[in-house]
Amino acid sequence: MAKKMNKKERGEFRKLLAAKKESITRKLTETITESKEMESNVAQDLVDKAETSYTKEFLLSLSDGEREQLLLIDEALKRLEHGEFGVCQVCHKEIGAKRIVAIPWTPLCIDCQQKAEEELQAQ
Length: 123
What we know:
There is one protein chain. By secondary structure, the chain is mostly helical. It has one domain (about 5-120): Up-down Bundle (Four Helix Bundle (Hemerythrin (Met), subunit A)). About 70% of the residues lie in helices and about 0% in strands. The protein has four helices and no strands. It has helices at about 5-40, 45-80, 95-100, 110-120.
């Protein structure tokens, strides 16, 4: 089963997750602000309107991944509080140290992640 994290390790991961969350939140806020500014600028002609619409849609689509990442970070913070951080949510084995350092919000070990991706590709 998974090794128990000490208080210092939990604190370091908490800081790392909080910093990443703050960074994404700031970026999303900037994207929303840019989108609103585009909306308020009156386009001169049809080409300008089309370009503005496309650019706005592009900016907002960029944030979908970040929104998903924010949810994963919140879930990781909850697992940290409940002593389940670093444990795969599928097989309940310890997530490898390199993986948890590289992607601290990951809910899955590398094996379960690969299985999930294979299932998605098969659909």
